[in-house]
Amino acid sequence: MSDKNFGFGTQIRKSPYFESTVKWGATGFSVYNHMYIPRDFGDPEKNFWNLIQTAILCDVAVERQVEITGPDAFKFIQLLTPRDLSKLSIGQCKYVLITNDKGGILNDPVLLRLAENHFWLSLGDSDILLWAQGVAVNSGLDVKITEPDVSPLQLQGPNSAKIMIKLFGDVIKDLKYYWFKELDLDGIPLVVSRTGWSSEFGYELFLRDGSKGNELWEKIMSAGQDFGIQPGHTSSIRRIEGAMLSYHADADIHTNPFELGLDRLVNLDSNIDFIGKKALKKIKDQGIKRLQIGLEIKCDPLKGPNTIFWPIINNGKKIGKITSAVYSPRLKKNIGLGYFPIRHSYIGFEADTKFEDHKRKVKIVEKPFIDPNKNIAKGIKN
User: Fold this and answer.
1) How far apart are CA 138 and CA 127, in angstroms?
2) Cβ distance 320 to 290 under 8 Å?
3) Are 134 and 70 in contact (CB under 8 A)?
4) Is residue 96 part of a domain?
5) DSSP string, 280-337
6) Residue pair 206/194 in contact by the 8 Å Cβ criterion
7) SS3 318
């Protein structure tokens, strides 16, 4: 892509790294949180192998931050999520769910606590900024809710630690999984966390000055040359192997946490109050009717991820849907995520799906497909 004026108009924003991603070979983009995100650097399978064997740098500035400050910021952030945050420390991250009054999931961001009453919600594709601002209006709480000038990069893969040590020195060595530090790289202000949307070992670098985006990108790529770094994009293959959610695909406003097996993120027995608590209590008491499962799809290797939901069919009737599917070159199988009725959601159950005018067999299997305890991401060696 050689045209620097690529775009659909000013309503879709370009990230601070846009020029660098084009320079380094981005050939395709999609829209996420009203911004362009690079989705194609040539070969998705090569991108996958780069991720799990060396390191990739990804422009994920689309992961916009909702900044919540003010005297009542902690009370407000607890109101938004069913996860008990009473033990959340300054400098710590937590994976949380944002639910509505019916218990439906609005998003599944990572929460960062920068100070006693200073938080960021690092978003998936959603309009949580507007939701939070709307909730605040009648909350009676003294908070300020904005979108700050913060744009993340992801450095992911087994060699990412070596690259980060070259950039920051020993100060980065003791950064624990799901914790962060506020750092400065040659005058570039950053928050650096041991997180990422890859299921691999890695970091996120939250740039706090959008004018320095291309400078930061180039510094990281330069530091990574001896360690096999490649420009890349979030990997659908690795995401599905790790059973990581993609909001709007695997979950939406009509999905509740229990259908995803995320009971650990819902603290109904504590004294905390949050939006959706009454509804979620009722759902838990009555029981869920469907469950997200992992599955194998019996057919030739898929040429790419699914772009529509595929039906799950049993005895000629649609009983569920496949939300994410891809061919894993490591497992040499087509794998996916989907929803089955509770009565059929057991390991080994077989059904059919249909796409491209052909029926295929599917079988329920354990998920995640790789590293179920997330030891790779945590940096725990087997």
Assistant:
1) 19
2) yes
3) no
4) yes
5) HHHHHHH--SEEEEEEEEESSPPSS--SSPEEEEETTEEEEEEEEEEEETTTTEEEEE
6) no
7) strand
Closest CA to 98 of 69, 70, 59, 68: 68
**Range(s) of the domain holding residue 301:** 289-382
- Alpha-carbon span 159 to 223, nearest angstrom: 11
Q: Are strands 55-59 and 229-232 parallel, antiparallel or unpaired?
A: parallel
> Is 3 part of a structural domain of the chain?
no
- For residues 111 and 280, what is the distance between their CA atoms, to the nearest angstrom? 21
How does pLDDT run across 176-187, given as a tens digit for each residue? 999 999 999 999
Instruction: Tell which of 207, 239, 271 closes a domain.
Output: 239
Neighbours of 110 (CB within 10 A): 23
In a domain, 12, yes or no: no
Is pLDDT at 3 greater than 60 in this prediction?
A: no
Q: What is the structure's pLDDT at 6?
A: 66
Spatial separation of the C-alpha atoms in residues 113 and 92, rounded to whole Å: 6
Task: Pick the closest to residue 241 from 120, 98, 337 (CA basis).
Answer: 337
CA-based R_g, the chain, Å: 21
pLDDT at 1 over 80: no
In a domain, 52, yes or no: yes
Q: How many domains does the chain have?
A: 3
Shared domain check, 374 and 226: no
Structure tokens at 347: 């390991």
The answer, as to whether pTM is greater than 0.90, is yes
Beta-bridge mates of residue 291: 340
d(CA 199, CA 280): 28
Whether residue 38 is found in the same domain as residue 171: yes
The whole-angstrom separation of Cα 148 and Cα 196 is 20
Q: Does 312 lie in the same domain as 380?
A: yes
Residue pair 196/154 in contact (Cβ under 8 Å)? The answer is yes
Per the CB < 8 A criterion, the answer to whether 162 and 180 are in contact is no
Helix and strand element counts for the chain (H, E): 9, 21
372 and 302 within one domain: yes
Q: What is the mean pLDDT of residues 131-137?
A: 98
Is the predicted pLDDT of residue 228 greater than 60, yes or no? yes
Least confident of 3-17, 115-129, 235-249, 334-348: 3-17
